[in-house]
């Protein structure tokens, strides 16, 4: 991940808010008018009091009207600045969510597997919400600063000595507020990280609730989550204590300012250097700036929390993929399907060696099965072919072309895959099959479904191919979802087919139907199969036996049985002799 030296708020403004400058400008203009109006209270009170002192009979009507005009203008300006700034902010918020989603969709598989989906989702919800709240508070803080500045300017015209004294009193808060802000930022970042972990734990517990109930693991789940809940509680309590220090600090300074004002005004009144009208105006000005001054403490605290949220958001946006196209990447046209592994090695980002010295040639149009114990490296082979990961050493080529020399898009067009977990996305049945070849005609979708023995149960539904699929495809059985997945692969019509235990979770009747569909799908294609159930791959043209990241045996079913190696041992374990 490339380091970005720009401060998070500066970057938020430059890259995400600046495009809505026109909307924000209207809001800031309204802030300026509102600040001037707030400052006008002090001057207005001074004029009204002078009118009373001078026994001006007209003050009885122009005085109240002045105050009403000021309050009405302030209310209108507040409405405009809040609606305009918030409009710009929600637009930028949506842009950030879109950018994060796009980055994750294209991110390296290794990065996505480092953090649970539920934890990543908190970046779109909790972090975005905290960022939005903090920026709203910053806009409110800007309004407070403008009000304080405008009011101080007006107060200087009334009595500069008293005003400077009050400014000096409030400036005493700068150093302690800065120190508190640094601590709040650190605690807030830890809180957001733990919140993401908690979301992942809760999601994991609920997704595995059937297992938990069956094995009576409720107490384990509760105990496991208790630690992170307690840690979050401690962080939140610490955050509360830190934030709570700001308000009393500003409150005490406001009290000190009032005390200073009373002392100095009493002294100047006794010397005849000030009037009662001046005193009332200064008191009004102090009252005007007291609440904005208190708000600045809250603004500072929220800004520090928002920084931690923005750091987590920009971590996603700054992701850099290690799997990229070469500068002169070629476009791979439809291949025949000869696959060659030459001294291929692969080590996962966490340091685990998955493949070591793999050498293998798979002729075009042949069916090759990969077997071996769990962790032998079979699934890694499937991940490396379409470059979901890049090999650490060696060369993988298709029809003699190094797969790293061609574009990822054209490479992945050569593959269709059917796994043991059939993934269905939200949409219609036709759309889910159509994902195999975007833009395919409806008749081709139907033809693929018929070839996959899926047309019958699809047309039995009221909406047929337009039936909506809920999240995860809960409205379909395992066998039906698998046939939809096969239909998708048939529609793709790719020259290389990857089958990752496609019948492992099915009953005998569903397996029989799906095996027939897979036989049709495999015809004329280079087909690679991962299988634990050896009965499903006895007819393969070649069986590759893997162990601890190496190929230890190759041959047909009968040849491997005769070798009395690992394959023969696996066969005896499954078939009892």
Describe the structure.
This protein has 577 residues and is of the alpha/beta class. The chain folds into three domains: 8-186 and 244-317, ABC transporter type 1, transmembrane domain (ABC transporter transmembrane region fold), CATH 1.20.1560.10; 323-414 and 495-577, 3-Layer(aba) Sandwich (Rossmann fold); 423-493, P-loop containing nucleotide triphosphate hydrolases (Rossmann fold), CATH 3.40.50. 63% of the residues lie in helices and 11% in strands. It contains 20 helices and twelve strands. The strands form three sheets. The protein has a six-stranded mixed β-sheet. A hairpin with a 2-residue loop joins strand 4 and strand 5. Helix 3 (59-105) runs parallel beside helix 11, helix 6 runs antiparallel to helix 7 and helix 8 runs antiparallel to helix 10 (218-271). The longest helix has 54 residues, at 218-271. The radius of gyration is 35 Å and the shape is elongated. The protein starts with 7 loop residues before the first helix and ends with a helix.
CATH architecture of the largest domain: Up-down Bundle
- Specify the overall morphology: elongated
> Structural class of the secondary structure composition?
alpha/beta
The count of β-strands is 12
Low-confidence runs of at least 5 consecutive residues: none
CATH homologous superfamily label of the largest domain: ABC transporter type 1, transmembrane domain
- The helix tally amounts to 20
Query: What strand line-up does the widest sheet have?
Result: 6-9-10-3-11-12
Helix content: 55-70%
Mean pLDDT: 83
Count of the domains: 3
Termini distance?
54 Å
CATH level 3 topology of the largest domain: ABC transporter transmembrane region fold
Beta content comes to 5-15%
Multimerization state: single chain
- Gyration radius, in Å: 35 Å
């Amino acid at each position: 991940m490339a380091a970005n030296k720009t401060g998070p708020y500066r970057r938020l403004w430059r890259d995400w808010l600046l495009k809505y400058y026109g909307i924000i400008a209207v809001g800031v203009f309204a802030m300026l008018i509102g600040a001037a109006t707030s400052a006008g209270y002090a001057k207005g009170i001074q004029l009204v009091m002078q009118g009373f002192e001078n026994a001006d009979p007209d003050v009885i009507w122009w005085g109240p009207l002045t105050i009403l005009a000021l309050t009405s203008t302030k209310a209108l300006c507040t409405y405009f600045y809040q609606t305009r700034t918030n409009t710009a902010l929600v637009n930028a918020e949506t842009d950030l969510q879109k950018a994060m989603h796009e980055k994750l969709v294209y991110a390296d598989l290794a990065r996505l597997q480092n953090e649970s989906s539920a934890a990543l989702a908190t970046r779109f919800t909790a972090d975005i919400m905290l960022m939005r709240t903090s920026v709203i508070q910053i806009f409110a803080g800007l309004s407070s600063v403008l009000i304080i500045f405008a009011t101080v300017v007006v107060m200087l015209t009334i009595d500069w000595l008293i005003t400077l004294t009050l400014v000096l009193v409030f400036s005493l808060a700068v150093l302690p507020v800065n120190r508190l802000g640094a601590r709040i930022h650190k605690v807030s970042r830890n809180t957001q990280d733990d919140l993401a972990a908690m979301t992942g734990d809760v999601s994991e517990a609920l997704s595995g609730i059937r297992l938990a109930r069956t094995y009576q693991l409720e107490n384990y789940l509760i105990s496991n989550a208790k630690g992170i809940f307690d840690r979050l509680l401690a962080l939140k309590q610490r955050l509360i204590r830190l934030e709570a220090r700001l308000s009393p600090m500003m409150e005490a300074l406001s009290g000190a300012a009032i005390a200073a004002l009373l002392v100095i005004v009493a002294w100047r009144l006794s010397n005849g250097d000030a009037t009662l009208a001046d005193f009332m105006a200064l008191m009004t000005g102090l009252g005007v700036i007291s609440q904005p001054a208190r708000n600045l403490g809250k603004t500072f605290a929220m800004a520090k929390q928002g920084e931690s949220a923005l750091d987590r958001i920009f971590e996603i946006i700054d992701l850099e993929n290690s799997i990229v196209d070469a500068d002169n990447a070629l476009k791979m046209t439809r291949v025949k399907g000869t696959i060659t592994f030459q001294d291929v090695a692969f080590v996962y980002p966490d340091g685990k060696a998955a493949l070591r010295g793999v050498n293998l040639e798979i002729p075009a149009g042949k069916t090759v099965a990969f077997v071996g114990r769990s962790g032998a490296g079979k699934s890694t082979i499937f991940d490396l072919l379409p470059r979901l990961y890049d090999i650490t050493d060696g060369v993988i080529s298709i029809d003699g072309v190094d797969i790293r020399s061609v574009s990822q898009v054209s490479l992945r067009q050569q593959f269709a895959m059917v796994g043991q977990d059939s993934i269905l996305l939200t949409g219609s049945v036709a759309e889910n099959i159509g994902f195999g070849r975007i833009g395919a005609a409806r008749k081709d979708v139907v033809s693929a479904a018929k070839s996959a023995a899926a047309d019958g149960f699809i047309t039995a539904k009221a909406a047929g191919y337009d039936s909506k699929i809920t999240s995860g495809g809960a409205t379909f059985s395992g066998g039906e979802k698998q046939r939809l997945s096969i239909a998708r692969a048939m529609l793709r019509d790719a020259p290389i087919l990857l089958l990752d235990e496609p019948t492992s979770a099915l009953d005998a009747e569903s397996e029989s139907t799906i095996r027939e569909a897979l036989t049709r799908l495999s015809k004329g294609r280079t087909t690679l199969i991962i299988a634990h159930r050896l009965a499903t791959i006895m007819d393969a043209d070649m069986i590759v036996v893997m162990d601890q990241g190496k190929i230890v045996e190759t041959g047909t079913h009968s040849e491997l049985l005769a070798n009395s190696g690992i394959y023969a041992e696996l066969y005896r374990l499954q078939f009892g002799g």
